[in-house]
């Protein structure tokens, strides 16, 4: 068992979790205190000792499932165990697809707890068997799962705001069912090929926390709150000569009265960190559609945290949206307002960075000073137009600090019409960023950059 | 170690007796914490009962609760110990000239002149205690580093006195609202517990436990509304504490039924932002008037 656990720890490390020896020792001590027959307790004991954040917990859950499922399968392959019997058995009775559909829907709609996991699994097997007979198997598990779902006509209940549709089933239950189907398909594949598929790292998508927009927004807000904290308390982290603060003579003298005029304890003048002034430019063109919701939520969160903030959106031209954000508190209203207002910024739907810099200079050149920071959120794809890096250099020169956040992986920069290289020398930092995790990285970087 | 917390089930039962309905993982982590003698780091959104868990643990195990509330600028003089300067000064003046320097120095740096703050008093207590370090994320990073010695070895080094070691092993809970990433070194020394909003069944139990005289149907509706409100995209979703408050409010008002009008009147109990109020009024009010929430009213 110890070996298995070490293998698990190895796999966790490969997923980027920091599992140290001390954590492992804790895990062993914890496992000694719980019973091993209870799967939940076993996993909880592991996650209490190994996982140190909510995200870690998620990763652990996924890896745990995969790991112990695969371990069981490997043993099955090694021992040559297959489940022939049940398969033949099922082959004799023809499966009525409509009846099956009804049963599955009933099982999924039933309250949790009434149906055990076992029944769901049986239904998943039946569904696969029925599906396999139609001869539509694509060989790709993910595709098969979706096809089975569609064949069965299963729909997830939409959000609570809509009246319940009798055809639909609760989303979580459907997810659980899909997981079962997936696992059974994998099992079948392993049986067919008599070997294990290579362990794949969890996809970035699987482990990224946010799934719904609301969730996403909350995560972004948390990171931005951290950003504000970092910017606000930076003075405290100063090192070296600037670390020792000035003595506050008045308060020291007053305190010394307690000790008969002997200044036993010094009081220091508190540091007053300067208030950051931010100028944020956000690309909302079609080439960054997928990222623009993320960007807008960053912008929204920034507005929540910073007073002195001016924000702009741009496509072909630039338009200031500071007021929109100040007027509207809800994210939905803001994105609607900006979408409706986009006509200002959007003429052809193609980004024109040159023109954007020109107009930005016209708008803010008098206000930019060394205390201000400029943050650009965009992909630097000019659609073949002039990048006008000289204008950008003027903006960057006027501002104290300039950062560029690019939603594309660094690999794609400077390919095609991306002109990141032209802008990069003028920035104090460029970052790839499309998840909240990377946003946190950005926050860390600029906090230490001062 | 208290005899009552011998297994996970017993821990859960003891917490239940203390008025805290613990989930599977909560009971397990509490049990592990006192079995392994490790601190527990409790994280989760505001108002899911992190602080309450510590209080319940202290009641369940019959230990005293020592609480340290963290805030920005908290330092060791307020968390660990401080020398009682005034008393030392008095002492020096009384001794005046006839005592030698050596004696005076030995004298004024004795335990008599030490003011123990929460951490030191938790460690040096005669009886084992439950130590709650609340909202650790509000304190500075430097403070975390200072905690490391206390948390892993249960000892405090005082330069003038030497090392004060724990006479008893305190049960330590740290809570965090996740407003800042804690350091790895601190996390490494702790068991991790994530508390989240409970599902409706458990929340119903909790509300019923804290407001027992509230009618069951109303409590059920109330929980349904709260759960629904949580799914909206709010600035601050209502916490468990707030649903309990709401239940008590309804009790006070003697309300017989949850309907749109009543929600509007008492909504400020669960929703604390203006924009959130509008959103909830818009969404939940409509639903209630459609009669989609809860069982149909007995007419």
Report on this model:
The complex is a heterodimer of chains A (450) and B (299). Chain A is an alpha/beta fold and 450 residues long. Chain A folds into three domains: 2-79; 84-198, no CATH class; 277-447, Rossmann fold. Helices cover 54% and strands 8% of the residues of chain A. Chain A is built from 19 helices and eight strands. Chain A has helices spanning 2-14, 21-33, 39-50, 54-79, 84-92, 97-109, 117-133, 141-151, 171-193, 204-207, 213-232, 249-256, 289-305, 322-327, 331-341, 353-364, 389-398, 420-423, 436-447, and strands at residues 155-156, 168-169, 277-283, 309-314, 318-320, 372-377, 401-406, 429-432. In chain A, helix 6 (97-109) packs antiparallel against helix 7 (117-133). By secondary structure, chain B is α/β, with parallel strands linked by helices. Chain B has three domains: 3-77 and 117-194, P-loop containing nucleotide triphosphate hydrolases (Rossmann fold), CATH 3.40.50.300; 81-114, no CATH class; 200-290. Chain B is 49% helix and 13% strand. Chain B is built from 14 helices and nine strands. In chain B, helix 1 (8-17) packs across helix 2 (24-36), helix 10 (200-210) crosses helix 11 and helix 10 (200-210) crosses helix 12. At the A-B interface, helix 2, helix 3, helix 4 and helix 11 of A face helix 2, helix 5, helix 9, strand 9 and helix 14 of B.
Mind sketching the topology for me?
The complex is a heterodimer of chains A (450) and B (299).
Chain A: H1 2-14, H2 21-33, H3 39-50, H4 54-79, H5 84-92, H6 97-109, H7 117-133, H8 141-151, E1 155-156, E2 168-169, H9 171-193, H10 204-207, H11 213-232, H12 249-256, E3 277-283, H13 289-305, E4 309-314, E5 318-320, H14 322-327, H15 331-341, H16 353-364, E6 372-377, H17 389-398, E7 401-406, H18 420-423, E8 429-432, H19 436-447
Parallel strand pairs in A: 1-2, 3-4, 3-6, 6-7, 7-8
Antiparallel strand pairs in A: 4-5
Chain B: H1 8-17, H2 24-36, E1 40-43, H3 50-61, E2 64-69, H4 76-79, E3 81-83, H5 85-95, H6 101-108, E4 114-116, H7 118-124, E5 129-134, H8 141-153, E6 155-158, E7 162-165, E8 171-176, H9 184-188, E9 191-194, H10 200-210, H11 216-231, H12 240-253, H13 260-266, H14 274-290
Parallel strand pairs in B: 1-8, 1-9, 2-5, 5-8
Antiparallel strand pairs in B: 3-4, 6-7
